[in-house]
Amino acid sequence: MNDFFTLMKPELMITGIIFLLLFIKIGKGLSNENMLMIIQVLLLLNFIAGFFFNAEGILFNGMYHASKMVTLQKNILSLGVYIISLLFSGWFKRSEHMPEFFVLMLSALMGMFFLVSSGNLLMFFLALELATIPVAAMANFDLEKRRSSEAAMKMILTGAFSSGILLFGISFIYGATGTISFTELPQHLDGSPLQVLALVFLFSAFAFKLSIVPFHLWTADVYEGSPMAATAFLSVISKGAVAFIFMATLYKVFQPMHEIWYSLVMILSIATMVVGNLFALRQQNIKRFLAFSSIAQVGFILVGISSNSIHGTTSVVYFIFIYLFSNLAAFGVAGAIASQTGKEKIDDYKGLYQTNPFLCWVLALALFSLAGIPPTAGFFGKLFLLTAGASKGSYLFIIIAALNMIISLFYYLRVVRAMFMEKNEQPIEKIRIDFSARLGLIICATGIVLVGLMSWIYDYIQNMV
Amino acid sequence: MNLSLLILLPLLTAIIILLVRKSTQVKWVALTGASLQLILALALYYFLRNERMEGNTAQMLFELQYNWFPAWHISFHLGVDGISVAMILLTAFVVIAGVLVSWNVTKMTKEFFFLLILLSLGAYGFFMSLDLFILFFFLEIAVIPKYLLIGIWGSGKKEYAANKLALMLMGGSALVLVGLLGLYFSVSQHSFDLLQLSQFHIPIQTQMICFPLLFVGFGVFTALFPFHTWVPDGHSSAPTAGSMFLAGISMKLGGYGCLRVATYIMPEGAKEYATIIIILSVIAILYGAFATMMQKDLKYINAYSSVSHCGFVLLGIGMLTKTSMTGAVMQMVSHGLMTALFFAVIGMIYGRTHTRQVNEMGGLLKRMPFISTVLFIVGLCSLGLPGLSGFVAEMTIFMGSWEHPDTFRRVATILACLSIVVTAVYILRAVTKTAMGPLKEGFEYLTDATWNEKLAAIILLAGIIAIGIAPAWLNDLVRPGAEIIMQKIVPATTGVN
Asked: Which single residue of A42, A86, A275, B394 has CA 20 to 30 Å from B272?
């Protein structure tokens, strides 16, 4: 019983916060602003608490497991949610149903916690559902916008489809091996055709969630239609969690079949990078633009995953940690602009530097970090992913990845050029950013600048593996 | 001497620039920082010379090493030899001159000087790093400041030029990256350390793949034909200080990388590909020279002639003799100073006449004696007049190249020599048309150089003349470094040098 409380502490914390929010909502005595402040404090406490009293072990006959690495991954996700609560404060304050949004978000977060902790395919499936369905409701949160409903509908449909495929794959695995426990599966896997088919099904389900090409088609529409906070959550937290468990599944469960999944990962990685980058070139809407850029980033994560080593795990977690700061900063700036002016086109950003230098520098830093340019952290993140991937010795793969970095630089620079260089008679007026959004942006910018230079973070992550 | 000072100083300067408010304060902070850089660089030269005098024959001096990413065996490893110090000196000279000529920048002054100083930080770090990872890190740090400098403060097709430059340079660094990863995994004890890598024998198959990747990758930076196309656009669109930094420092990053990384670590690869390097560099030399003949715009003239002059650097490296390599480094320093001064003068002229077209100018000597005289001197340096730095450097390269007895290399040397004639034609034509003849209408009220411009010109001229009149100090500085690189190449060559 004691184990139950220590091992499941993160999940219990989240559950506690959810209930607290529901009570606050019923009370109705608080203004939106105060409520947001309370939520932010709670999330901050939740993040800090993640570093203390952690234990390792298993629960429910191996259904649930906690390790140092899992705790670290949960902490990263909590940090992301905390930053989201800061960044989009302008939108939250005006939203009528703010506590509900957080309840949904935290439920999804709890699903992700269970997801990275799962030690059994059944648990894994349940957690994935818990992590997906609330997000669809979040996508629908701009109630007056039709696009928002459309986005939610698309998410539900693709989510249901991918769940179906996942269940199909799980049933195949059970049929072929007679077990669904992560610890027992590797002994039964020998690469027989049925198992390969099951792997492919499982892989496609992951690919849906990670928006790996060719399962990426829902991404841009959903990102565009959802409110910015939901988009940010989807593209950073959701993707991060699925990438963590994807890597863990491949490395631990499917280790006996690593030659088979290596080629799968490599081919899909190339396709994802190329398609994501090429489509990003032509986007006009900043949300669609970031959607395709995040597809391309997943391609890079796959490069790291392909290495199948301790370096792979470390560099992927490290990259996602950095990606969290960079992408959230980009969404934060875009969200601040969109929520005040409603402008989401890249062309609207022309001449932005004259009126909003702070936002411009943060966005530029974020984009440089996404493009992998030093001294931003993204440089280190990408470089270590590539180094990990190169350890397998397929240079063509690495050359293609490196060339993709150039394509991506081209479109990231497009935004920078619009902001800094191009002239505009009527640039977007001065955007007012409140204290917490500013704090969020500063946290992100600091993270982007310092995480790479402070090498002990990488060592810290490696010690957790 | 602690080498990290040379990185911390620009960093500190940049941070202070961000903190101060008024634009005059920004300028003075930048100037102070740049002067301190120059003092540090001179001190570094002095200390290195002292150490060598006392018989310290260690390959790298003032080494310093911190573990950075132990998981990947990456350490923050700095160290200098004569070649690096020569390049550091060049950087310091160009930086202070660049800051001085930018005194009149009024648009976003703070950002401008911040980026300039950031660029110098990248250059110093690059020239000092002995770990290939941080070398690459510093190489890439310098790309984005260049992009922003051209795109925001540039003129003409600035957005196009900025994009082209950033993408081509990033393309070059992508090749470098793949090459570096190849090297990293080729040795059993995975390492990015330059000195360690040079001790190992890199398998010949790896060298055959990685050498071209690294050489072409760095070559993009130094206008290796056919990857030179960013040079004319980038240089001509950049603001004055931007052009000075681009041609004076940034193009030298590539040459230094070709020499220090590609050739030093992979001598067999260098030998295998020497023929191709020589052919490409001769093409660059001649093509650059003839293309310059057709240009009417002063900045384009200097940009294309930079392609030609940087071809000499690659030729010197490709010839693989001690003398030619020494010459290549001297050419880098000489061309860096000269071209920076040339761009500075063009900037001064353009700031007054508001045109860079040679045809629209004339008789400037009458109104602007100082600027025109400097223009003359730098032109003469460019065409290789004895007594100025250009002659010394090019002569050393030719002498080194001629040491080879085979016909191919001699023909290449002769062809490269021919370009000097062409250079004389275009330089003399441009300079006389600009400065001599009757004064064109509308130029009657032009003023001569201001104090900051004079100071910038004098600092750079001092460097040019110091090399031109007494080349021995530079030669002595660079030669030991070139010897060490050659030691790895010589055992298997046909006994040349």
From this structure: B394
| Of residues B287, B227, B300, B273, the one with CA closest to residue B415 | B287
Q: How far apart are the first and last CA of chain A?
A: 27
- Contact status, residue A138 vs residue A36, Cβ threshold 8 Å: no
Contacts of A402 in chain B (CB under 8 A): 174-175, 177-178
Tens of pLDDT, residues B430-473: 888 888 878 777 777 778 878 888 888 899 989 888 888 888 88
Q: What is the pLDDT of residues A254-309, one digit of tens each?
A: 888 888 888 889 999 999 999 999 998 888 888 889 999 999 999 999 999 988 88
* Amino acid identity for residue A45 in this structure: L
Token pair of B80 as six digits: 């200098």
Torsion (CA) B229, B235, B238, B242 in degrees, nearest 10: 120
Residues 6+ positions from A18 with CB-CB distance below 8 Å = A103, A106, A107, A110
User: Which residue in chain A is spatially nearest to B136 when comparing CA positions?
Assistant: A374
Cross-chain Cβ contact B170/A413 below 8 Å: no
Residues of B in contact with A311 (CB under 8 A): 71-72
CA terminus-to-terminus distance, chain B? 34
Whole-angstrom distance, CA of residue A351 vs CA of residue A83: 28
Burial of B196 (0-12, 13-18, 19+ CB in 10 A): middle
What residues of chain B, 142 to 181, have a C-beta less than 8 Å from chain A? 143-144, 147-148, 151-152, 158-159, 162-163, 166-167, 170-171, 174-175, 177-178, 181
Give yes or no for a contact between A18 and A32, defined as CB atoms under 8 angstroms apart: no
Round to whole Å and give the CA distance between A199 and A220. 27
Helix locations, A51-192, DSSP H: 68-87, 89-94, 98-117, 121-139, 146-177, 185-188
Contact in structure between B130 and B193 (CB atoms under 8 Å): yes
Q: Which helix (H) or strand (E) element contains residue A26?
A: helix A9-27
| Residue B447 structure tokens | 């003023």
Helix, strand, coil distribution of chain B in percent, nearest 5: 75, 5, 20
From its phi and psi, is residue B193 left (phi > 0), alpha (psi between -120 and 50) or beta? Answer: beta
pLDDT band per the 50, 70, 90 thresholds, residue B497: very low
How many other CB atoms sit within 10 Å of the CB of residue B64? 15
How much is the pTM?
0.91
A187 contacts: CB under 8 Å, gap ≥ 6: none
Q: Mean pLDDT over all residues of chain B?
A: 87
pLDDT tens string B381-431? 888 888 888 888 888 898 888 888 888 888 888 888 888 888 888 888 888
Cβ-based contacts of B181 with chain A (< 8 Å): 386-387, 390, 395, 398
Taking CB atoms within 8 Å and a gap of at least 24, the contacts of B187-191 are B189/B73, B190/B72, B190/B73, B191/B73
Residues 6+ apart with CB under 8 A from A378: A322, A323, A326, A368, A369, A370, A371, A372, A448, A452
> In A173-228, where do the E strands start and end?
none
ipTM: 0.90
Cis omega before residue A374 (within 30°)?
A: no
The DSSP H or E segment spanning B77 is strand B74-80
Residue with tokens 């390790």: A67
Which residues from chain B sit within 8 angstroms of residue A403, using beta carbons?
171, 174
Angle at B109 between CA B93 and CA B120, to 5 degrees: 30
Tokens of A266: 């490599």
Q: State how far the Cα of A133 lies from the Cα of A326, in Å rounded to an integer.
A: 26
Query: Helices (H), strands (E): how many in chain A?
Result: 22, 2
Q: Which residues contact B47 (CB under 8 A, 6 or more apart)?
A: B1, B62
